[in-house]
Amino acid sequence: MRQKLLIIGTGRFAKVLFRLLSDTFDIYFLTRKNSHSITDDFWQNKQLLVKPKSLIGSFDIIIPAVPISKIAIFLKKYAQYFKPNQLIIDIASVKVYPQSLKKNITLINQCY
After folding, report:
1. Which of 80, 81, 86, 20 is nearest to 55 (CA)?
2. End-to-end alpha-carbon separation of the chain, Å?
3. Which domain holds residue 84?
4. How far apart are CA 47 and CA 26, in angstroms?
């Protein structure tokens, strides 16, 4: 059985990830946009999820393909839905800031 991969975002990098990984994983995308407002032909027949936060725990791997300026918002918004056995792949270009945020989120999650 193939692992389920969730890509957060529907930008250019999300498209690249899909092209690179779609032969190996069942890929889903989480977007804050209404699926009807995404008119790019690339997204036709893709598995788009619109804000189903509670489903995040059902994925094996999560890749937040969001701008570095949004990573803190992403982690605060979704951390409560992460599961201990999930792999969350950091693709942000600058590692110092996201790493400090993840340490804080880890501390928060230990309280749940």
Report:
1. 81
2. 31
3. 4-110
4. 9
Total domains in the chain come to 1
User: Residue 90, Cβ neighbours under 10 Å: how many?
Assistant: 13
**DSSP state, residue 37:** G
Whole-number Å distance between alpha carbons of 76 and 104: 10
Supply the DSSP symbol for 2.
P
Tokens encoding 20:
């690179």
Residue 24's domain is classified under what CATH number? 3.40.50.720
Q: Which two tokens stand for residue 67?
A: 């701008």
Q: CB of 12 within 8 A of CB of 5?
A: no
Output the pTM of the full model.
0.70
Q: Report pLDDT for 39.
A: 53
